[in-house]
Description:
Elements: E1 2-10, H1 27-39, E2 46-47, E3 56-66, H2 72-82, E4 87-95, E5 107-115, E6 129-130, H3 137-144, E7 149-152, E8 167-183, E9 186-199, H4 206-218, H5 224-233, E10 248-254
Parallel strand pairs: 3-10, 5-6
Antiparallel strand pairs: 1-3, 1-4, 2-3, 5-9, 5-10, 7-8, 8-9
Helix pairs in contact: 1-2, 3-4, 3-5
Amino acid sequence: MRKIKLDLEYDGTNYHGWQVQDDAVTIQGIIEERVKRLNGFPTRIYGASRTDAGVHALSQVAAFNTPTIYDTETIKKALNATLPADIRILNADEVENSFNPRDDAIRKIYFYIIANERKSSVFLQRYTSAVRKSLDIDSMIKSSKFLIGEHDFASFMGTGSGIKNTVRKIYSLTVESLHEIDFMSIKLRGNFIKIRIEANGFLRHMVRIIVGTLIEAGRGRISASEVKDILESRNRNLAGPTAPPQGLFLEKILY
């Protein structure tokens, strides 16, 4: 058996997240159907990050085993030929059989785009989250500083997770104001806020809860010092709401 590593991108709008579910259409499930045709038998695909329903990826990493003798370019073309238009294999490589996309990852990078204006372009509804009231970006930046470093992020973990070790390390967390973004080679002007987080791993809904908390800080409902208290409390009920999924992108997995 050979192991094939896939780099892929997808628009998560029409899917119930990455992970296979019995009664829902997922990205992992769609790709496994195509790999089954390639291998001739059911084959499990392992992904680096379990993105939520509606979340997008610019560079997800996955791997599967295959007995085929096809070269990696042929495998890439064969999969892309039958995948839906909103899932695309960017690259395929043969790797060591010991490679594990999730366990071998050392850092993951996500970013979130907020359209901070009353009316944004209709073309951005799938890829940004709208907050109509003007946000205080300085308050958001000050609040974000307390989250950088190694901490117990239990306050920023969604319900339904069985993970017991809630300590993670955030290497960088930036909040920046943008007045235009590139979309399909078109520059769209407006008021946008981009939140980018690089960490050694993330808990369930962690990025979206951090974003929701920073939005509350931008609205003046939470002070920067209160964000520190929320972090130390290990109490999910004290953090902000979980931000909508459509503004979130998995940017890159680092190995």
